């Protein structure tokens, strides 16, 4: 996978849960209305400001709680990658399944200011703040999981293999 | 214990934290929510599955169907179960909440690996299963291919000493741990000790379920005498329990004395490090609009029993709606036979069909802006049960029932002590 470069949004709260990204009350709303609810209880109005290619920087255990497919809400907003101090385990799996590049990078909040231009390469586990010149390295994503993301997610793999 | 199960199911001699393993899974549970025809769920039908006998469709998230979307999902679930020959299909009215059914029907047995798309799958840890929730796409892939992957986690052990005090429940044990130890993200949790053995299975199941809210991955408890007796009452299928090795490595070992625990209440929006004692909150008389007992964590027969005992001969407070959702059809039936439902309904409680219901904010008790709820269900996140401008407190089912009568968040202990005194007098 290639390096992704975009403008950083920083939502530093720890333990942001998936109810906050994909609340049940939005399930029956029109798509745009549902998208406007993403993290709206934490940062009202943010969802509508995201531009395609932006990169989201978050705190510890991002995406705890329910197993709902919350990464799809971020990709619908145009978020190209998530870089977090750490990521909830089911949410991490869902990022892989729904082809949202994700990097766990302890310390990331201390090297990014919102609006910086940042680059992330999940294959290498590297992160560069292009605005400040500061770099950091997390764990490279295992090839099995990279393959799923590169194929467009689990549903695409299952269609390719004749299961769906 | 978890590492042993993962090693066995992946065909490896041993596994280590950080390693990614590909495994078979003994029980694969699909909730009704999988079958919604949205792109991220199941947009097209499954054509083939690897091990249909290992797959169970347990319809619970929205039962009976509250809208056309769920009605369609239920229809598709039935079609899939029939066409592909799934091992178990819990029809509306013949099942209940999946985690309750796994326990009640022993759909998985000690030493087995259990997966579901629901995050509270750690519930099956009470049966000495290695169980945790996966994602929606994960569970579809697992159903199709028979395989999934896990990143092996380090383990934290909670050793429970003492015994469960009078008027203290599994929910209070969880709240105590959430307050003292907080989030355990990135770790599996194992329980052991005489305190655990002193806990009834319902309370252990609540604790196992609620460990998802400590952000734990797998949760496991040993298969002691109570667990084995429960299984023997349901099935004579063979199983091999898994035990922790004497020299097993733990990231941390915490000792919790159950004697130190009292009735707790989680304040709104979070559970970890956000718990206070029910006796102190009771003094503040925080008015409530709704009281809810239910969910995979606390829709058990013992929850309905304590609620019925507390409200017997009394009336739910003016301006409060008290909603009780049994965890399964079997619990509903047992509660009818034992008179609990009559007692609850006579007191002004609404007893619903078995479903996730109000816990997930989908239907059967959604909160409006500005409302206050006390619940014994699984989560008090902002907006979880409806409006993000509602406040959700969490306590044991006894605390919920006592609050429903008082009209404000109440310490259940005075009501429980009065019940004990009455019982002693009549004896």
Name of the level-1 CATH class of chain A:
Alpha Beta
* Global Rg of chain A: 15 Å
CATH class of the largest domain in chain B: Alpha Beta
Q: How many β strands of chain B by DSSP? A: 18
> Any idea how many domains of chain A?
1
CATH topology of the largest domain in chain B: Aconitase, domain 3
CATH topology of chain A: Aconitase, domain 4
Q: What is the β-strand count of chain A?
A: 7
The residue-averaged pLDDT of chain B reads 97
The greatest inter-chain interface is formed by: A-B, 41 and 51 residues
Largest sheet of chain B: 5 strands, parallel
Gross CATH architecture of the largest domain in chain B: 2-Layer Sandwich
- Class by alpha and beta content of chain A: alpha/beta
Helix percentage range of chain B: 25-40%
Q: What is the assembly state of the chains in this entry?
A: heterodimer
Sheet with the most strands, sense and barrel status of chain A: 7 strands, mixed
Instruction: Provide a count of the helices of chain B.
Output: 15
Give the mean pLDDT of chain A.
Answer: 96
CATH architecture of chain A, by name, is Alpha-Beta Barrel
Q: How many structural domains in the coordinates of chain B? A: 2
Q: Strands across the major sheet of chain B, in which order? A: 4-3-2-5-6
Polypeptide structure, described:
The complex is a heterodimer of chains A (164) and B (427). Chain A has a single domain, classed as Alpha-Beta Barrel (Aconitase, domain 4), CATH 3.20.19. A seven-stranded mixed beta sheet of chain A has the order 4-3-2-1-5-6-7, with helices on one face. Helix content of chain A is 25%, strand content 19%. The mean pLDDT of chain A is 96. The two termini of chain A are 25 Å apart. Chain A is an alpha/beta fold. Chain A has six helices and seven strands. With 427 residues, chain B is an alpha/beta fold. Chain B folds into two domains: 257 residues, Aconitase, domain 3; 161 residues, Aconitase, domain 3 (2-Layer Sandwich). Chain B is built from 15 helices and 18 strands. In chain B, strands 4-3-2-5-6 form a five-stranded parallel beta sheet. In chain B, helix 2 links the parallel strand 3 and strand 4. In chain B, helix 5 runs parallel beside helix 7 and helix 11 packs across helix 13. Chain B is globular and about 55 Å long. In chain B, 59% of the residues are buried. The model of chain B has no long low-confidence stretch (mean pLDDT 97). At the A-B interface, helix 4 and helix 6 of A face helix 4 of B.
